[in-house]
Design goal:
heterodimer; A: 400 residues; alpha/beta; 18% helix; 44% strand; B: 254 residues; six-stranded mixed beta sheet; four-stranded antiparallel beta sheet; 7 helices; 12 strands; binds adenosine-5'-diphosphate; binds magnesium ion
Chain lengths: 400, 254
């Protein structure tokens, strides 16, 4: 691995201002006024009332269009069950379960008000359970509706299982959701989430993955449409040899806001993480945000981590914010690196392809598809890769 | 037989200090099967000529004409020129992340021919050309020019030339950065293309070394944006011995 090794206690975190969220939320939680300096000490609670009202200078809200998400960050939400369809293979099952299910809360604890609001409001959780070595489930939702709601999804890969979960989202939504992903010891799980929401949909999600000893999680989030889509995946690597690959792919059109706040917490020895998010932006007001936090805790000896975010700006008036943070609390790591780059379309690439006879629009598509394809290739599920290739193609055709 | 004719070509480039005049009246006529070497010091405008032929948007034609069998090349877009049979092997080939060589070659071939090549014979052709150029077959699955060494990039340019079968090829310092073995391999590729397709070649170079392997029919000495002298292969021998000093009187040192 070519990632540069960051020395002990190097702390490249800086841009996020934790002190603001800390003061009031800590006082509400009764934890005193210690300023929060690191990502791990961010305030968390299951109860929405422990969080103060959302204001623009909160670190975790500062990029998000607050007026648009206000229905999800204020009053309690409708947490009733919704319509979905599911297809399963092998040892996979999908069912509703009550709030008292012992698995709820095993992976997650809300760290922002929308997430806590969803947690406080949901009535039943949809649970996908995977057992055996060829389990797969596809859950499709397209009738969530435009009224403000809360939901809770739990994905449980039992010990030694191997499986795939695909979550397809489409249609109207004003939805705040928590997704807990429990990957028990030695399980191998892939989760692919597709966001093809209606153009005026608003969706805020927090994903919490808890990765067991020797377990692996591949997590892919793909966002192609929706008005505001914010997906914040957190992976906790608390047991020996746990591994995560977190991938993201997004295509933001005019006026669209797509945001990811990714947090990987290495807290067990010999754990490994790879984070790659890539986005294309085109059109006036297309806005993407990526905040990538990696924390290597004191127990994270021999860990390896690499995170990167790359954005391709295809037109004027689009904006990509990209903030990688790396905090290391142990000296004994194998490697840790991060990279972030946002750039305009490279006209020299266009010239090179055209000079080989390829017409301009096709050359443009080739470059963008190539750029995003690097992530698509990582998914490892041919049918989904083909579908995404086609979806990206369609996005490019619309915006050309 | 085809003819590429350049007449009184004046070209400028946009710089921060305003337009800069680079080509100052270039005249050249190249016919199928001929090899013309263009030799000149650094900064004399050789790459500018190459890019202008290919239609790079940075270079502005102030006056003059370029025609290919009577067709106005300057009216054509970059890709139209390529489809009309012009090929530029670039001095600095561009990296295209996420686009594999095999996908790129197939897309280009399809664009040039106007139809997709028959799969079996195409794969065979690609493999044969790669083998001839001593390119490992794994290159087909690598991204275009990404992580290629200087020599690998140049072989990849010649690979494209062999497969796309242009009528005229401009080779811009294809020899620079190649060791002797690589130079031989690349030169063989050029000579093969010449034999099999009656290719006309504009061979741009700073050094005479490559002319041992690719024999020019004509040599043009390029200085300060125009052809200062031309002759047969013997002119290259003279340059080998005397260098460009003779042409660089006073302020023109590039
Ligand atoms: N894109 C450009 N921007 C600014 N100056 C340029 C550009 N391209 C070429 N030039 C200038 O034009 C002159 C000729 O350059 P070039 O055609 O690359 O010469 P050669 O290939 O013979 O070395 C040089 O002085 C160079 O600096
Ligand atoms: Mg040059």
């Amino acid at each position: 691995m070519s990632a540069p090794v960051v020395s002990a206690n190097a702390n490249t975190a800086a841009p996020t201002d934790h002190s603001k969220i800390a003061s009031r939320q800590h006082s509400v939680g009764g934890l005193g006024l210690t300023p929060v300096q690191t990502r791990s000490e961010r305030f968390a609670s299951y109860d929405v009332n422990d969080f103060e009202a959302v204001v623009p200078n909160h670190a975790e809200w500062k990029y998000t269009p607050l007026a648009k998400v206000a229905p999800l960050t204020g009053d309690a939400l409708d947490g009733s069950t919704y319509e979905y369809s599911a297809a399963t293979e092998g040892g996979a099952s999908v069912a509703w379960t009550g709030r008292d299910d012992a698995r709820i809360g095993r992976a997650g604890k809300p760290e922002d008000r929308a997430s806590a609001n969803a947690w406080s409001s949901f009535e039943q959780a949809l649970v996908v359970t995977l057992e055996g070595d060829e389990a797969s489930a596809t859950v499709s939702r397209s009738a969530i509706g435009a009224d403000a709601r809360a939901a809770h999804l739990l994905i449980h890969a039992t010990a030694n299982s191997r499986g795939l979960v695909v979550l397809e989202n489409a249609g109207d939504a004003m939805l705040a959701e928590n997704v807990e992903i429990i990957v028990d010891d030695n399980a191998d799980l892939s989760v692919v989430v597709l966001h093809e929401w209606a153009d005026d949909a608003v969706y805020l999600a927090s994903h919490f993955a808890n990765v067991g000893r020797g377990a692996r999680l591949k997590h892919v989030t793909v966002t192609l449409s929706g008005d505001v889509v914010r997906v914040n995946p957190t992976a906790h690597l608390g047991a020996e040899r746990g591994e995560v690959e977190l991938y993201g792919l997004y295509f933001a059109d005019a006026g669209q806001h797509i945001e990811h706040q990714v947090f990987v917490h290495h807290d067990g020895p010999h754990t490994k993480s790879t984070v790659t998010y890539k986005g294309a932006l085109q059109g006036d007001g297309a806005h993407t945000v990526w905040i990538g936090d990696v924390l290597i805790g004191r127990e994270g000896n021999g860990t390896e981590s690499y995170e990167q975010n790359r954005n391709l700006l295809l037109s004027d008036g689009a904006r990509a914010d990209s903030v990688p943070n790396l905090e290391i609390e142990t000296g004994d790591i194998l490697g840790a690196g991060h990279a972030s780059a946002s750039g305009r379309f490279d006209d020299e690439q266009l010239f090179y392809l055209q000079a080989r006879g390829i017409p301009e629009d096709e050359a443009r598509r080739l470059v963008v598809r190539g750029f995003l394809g690097e992530v698509i290739q990582k998914i490892g599920v041919p049918s989904i890769e083909e579908r995404l290739d086609a979806a990206v193609e369609a996005e490019l055709a619309v915006s050309a | 037989m085809s003819e590429l004719i350049i007449r009184d070509l004046h070209v400028s480039v946009e710089t921060e200090q305003g337009d800069k005049q680079i080509l100052k009246g270039v005249d050249l006529t190249i016919a199928s099967g001929q090899t013309h070497a263009i030799m000149g010091p650094n900064g004399s405008g050789k790459s500018t000529l190459a890019y202008t032929l290919a239609g790079h948007p940075k270079y502005k034609v102030e006056s003059g004409t370029i025609t290919l069998d009577g067709e106005d090349v300057l009216e054509m877009s970059v890709d139209e020129r390529a489809r009309a049979g012009l090929f530029l092997a670039m001095q600095y080939p561009v990296e295209i992340p996420g686009v594999t060589v095999s996908n790129f070659l197939r897309t280009a071939k399809t664009a040039i021919d106007g139809e997709a090549p028959a799969i079996r014979s195409w794969i065979k052709d690609v493999r044969a050309s790669m083998d001839n150029l001593r390119m490992d077959r794994t290159f087909a699955e690598r991204n275009v020019n990404e992580g290629f060494s200087g020599g690998e990039k140049k072989r990849h340019e010649i690979l494209q030339m062999e497969l796309l079968k242009p009528r005229f090829a401009v080779l811009d310092e294809t020899d620079s950065g190649l060791d002797v073995d690589a130079l031989k391999v690349v030169s063989e590729g050029v000579n093969r293309a010449k034999e099999t397709t009656d290719l006309g070649i504009l061979l741009i170079t700073h050094y005479t070394r490559i002319l041992r392997y690719i024999k020019p029919d004509f040599v043009h000495v390029f200085v300060d944006g125009r052809v200062a002298e031309q002759g047969g292969p013997e002119l290259a021998d003279r340059l080998e011995n005397e260098g460009y000093d003779r042409y660089l009187s006073g302020s023109n040192v590039g």
